[in-house]
């Protein structure tokens, strides 16, 4: 009898695991020339009862000292240092560790914040779904969403600053061009940064 009960429990656990789907970190496009995602700036409100709970415990990060001063109200991303520095309009600076694009997927230049979204949905492009037919049309907010709990969209929809469901990638060249942050860091930055903020991406 005990053996039957254990067998039934094992089968039930296997069924639940089979239904659970976690999607790896992705930045909304797969190749240069393959940019784009469906209607990136339209509002995607989270479910009314959604209360995000991280599936991992992120390491406490000491505040980094910015390596150089920058203009007020500006985000400066130092790609080689894997650091994002935001200088407030009052001159206070906040520096965060980030993940940046892999070799061949990095972009440098000046852009700006155009919008931001809490608990973003992730919409794989048609080319992504063609390469991986198991991807759904939409990944709802939650722990399986590779954009994390916040997304800050940059001009033209090419790049984003966002959270991640893979905190181990922070400090590395891991993304397809976007900039990943720890959950507590991106949530703090999200509250301070407004559309129109200048973003400078340096080597």
CATH superfamily of the domain at 74-201: L,D-transpeptidase catalytic domain-like
Separation of the first and last Cα atoms: 65 Å
State the CATH topology of the domain at 74-201: L,D-transpeptidase catalytic domain-like
Strand content: 15-25%
Shape: globular
* Main sheet record: 8 strands, mixed, barrel
Radius of gyration: 19 Å
- N-to-C SSE string, H for helix and E for strand: HEEEEHEEEEHE
* Order of adjacent strands in the largest pleated sheet: 1-2-3-8-6-5-4-9
Level-2 CATH architecture of the domain at 74-201? Beta Barrel
Number of helical elements: 3
Give the number of DSSP strands: 9
Percentage of residues assigned to helices:
10-25%
Low-confidence stretches: 15-20, 28-62
Highest-level CATH class of the domain at 74-201: Mainly Beta
Summarize model confidence as the mean pLDDT.
Answer: 76
Indicate the structural class. alpha/beta
Molecular structure report:
This protein is α/β, with parallel strands linked by helices and about 200 residues long. The protein has a domain at about 75-200: L,D-transpeptidase catalytic domain-like, CATH 2.40.440. About 15% of the residues lie in helices and about 25% in strands. The protein has three helices and nine strands; from the N terminus they run H-E-E-E-E-H-E-E-E-E-H-E. The protein has helices at about 1-20, 125-130, 185-190, and strands at about 75-80, 85, 95-100, 110-120, 150-155, 160, 175, 180, 200. The chain has an eight-stranded mixed barrel with strand order 1-2-3-8-6-5-4-9. The longest helix has 18 residues, at about 1-20. The chain is globular, with a radius of gyration of 19 Å. It starts with a helix and ends with a strand. Residues about 15-20 and about 30-60 have low confidence and may be disordered. Pathway: Cell wall biogenesis; peptidoglycan biosynthesis. Keywords: Cell shape, Cell wall biogenesis/degradation, Glycosyltransferase, Hydrolase, Lipoprotein, Peptidoglycan synthesis, Signal, Transferase. Belongs to the YkuD family.
């Amino acid at each position: 009898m005990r053996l039957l009960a254990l067998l039934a429990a094992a089968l039930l656990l296997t069924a639940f695991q089979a239904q659970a789907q976690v999607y790896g970190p992705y930045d909304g496009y797969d190749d240069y020339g393959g940019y784009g995602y469906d209607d990136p700036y339209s509002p995607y409100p989270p479910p009314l009862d959604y209360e995000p709970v991280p599936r991992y415990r992120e390491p406490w990060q000491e505040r980094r000292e910015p390596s150089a001063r920058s203009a007020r109200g500006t985000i400066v991303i130092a790609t080689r240092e894997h650091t994002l520095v935001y200088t407030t309009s009052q001159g206070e600076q906040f520096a965060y560790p980030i993940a940046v694009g892999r070799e061949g997927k990095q972009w440098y230049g000046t852009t700006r914040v155009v919008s931001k979204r809490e608990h973003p949905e992730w919409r794989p492009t048609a080319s992504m779904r063609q390469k991986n037919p198991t991807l759904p049309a939409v990944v709802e907010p939650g722990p399986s969403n590779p954009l994390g709990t916040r997304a800050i969209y940059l001009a033209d929809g090419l790049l984003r600053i966002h959270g991640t469901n893979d905190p181990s990638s922070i400090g590395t060249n891991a993304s397809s061009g976007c900039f990943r942050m720890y959950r507590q860091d991106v949530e703090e930055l999200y509250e301070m940064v407004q559309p129109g903020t200048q973003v400078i991406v340096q080597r």
